[in-house]
Amino acid sequence: MLKIETGELKSRTVDTVPDPRTRYTSAIIRRSLANMVDFEGKTCLDICAGSGIVGIEMLSNGARHVTFVDVSGLSISTIKRNIKKLGLEEKVDIKRIDARRFLESYAGVFDIIYSDPPYELGIVDEIASRVHNVMADNSIFILQCSKREKPSESVIEKLRVVKEKDYGDTLLIFFKKA
User: Fold this and answer.
1) CA gap 17, 20 in Å, rounded
2) Which of 5-19, 76-90, 119-133, 135-149 has the lowest mean pLDDT?
3) What is the mean pLDDT of residues 126-137?
4) I need a labelling partner for 94 at 20 to 30 A (CA). Which of 8, 65, 84, 115 fits?
5) Distance of CA 151 to CAs 39, 128, 131, 161, 166, Å?
6) DSSP 118
7) What angle do CA 175, 38, 64 make, to 5 degrees?
């Protein structure tokens, strides 16, 4: 079980994905996100969503709508269970699709995009190079990644870094459209 750290759903719990390979965004990072980003009334995207905890924190802090994207069937069933348990069904879309394919094919845009791809699988650059497709001019893209997988300059030519926060081996990088 994970505890929601901030907002109107604070202290409620969500189920975790029954897969030992799933890594969770720490409580410290989730609290920091809530302090740094205004989610109120925003349309958000949680890419590589896992249990959905980050998107649920967004909703708990006033996001109008969250789309959850994950390729894992276990993650999708966990997200659905968590959303139902919290009564958030009307505020979400849940998509079982590879994040890269979603970013290439989705026709809309989001105000805030968050991605925490699995570390050491080499997909950070692929997500960072495609995310501009779903960003409006004033969107924020927040990437959580290992320091060893920070996107290269050539990959993020359509983005500009506006903030970087260090959490041990983990980086949170905030981007705007270039």
Assistant:
1) 8
2) 119-133
3) 94
4) 8
5) 25, 7, 12, 11, 15
6) P
7) 105
Give the burial class of 24: count Cβ atoms within 10 A of its Cβ; 0-12 exposed, 13-18 middle, 19 or more buried. Answer: middle
* Beta carbons within 10 angstroms of residue 103's beta carbon: 24
The answer to whether the pTM exceeds 0.85 is: yes
- What is residue 122's predicted lDDT score, i.e. its pLDDT? 81
Residue with tokens 């845009």: 109
In one-letter notation, the amino acid at residue 49 is A
Q: pLDDT tens digits for 30-51?
A: 999 999 999 999 999 999 999 9
Contact 115, 132 (CB under 8 A): no
Question: Letter for the amino acid at 46?
Answer: D
Q: Does residue 167 have a pLDDT over 80?
A: yes
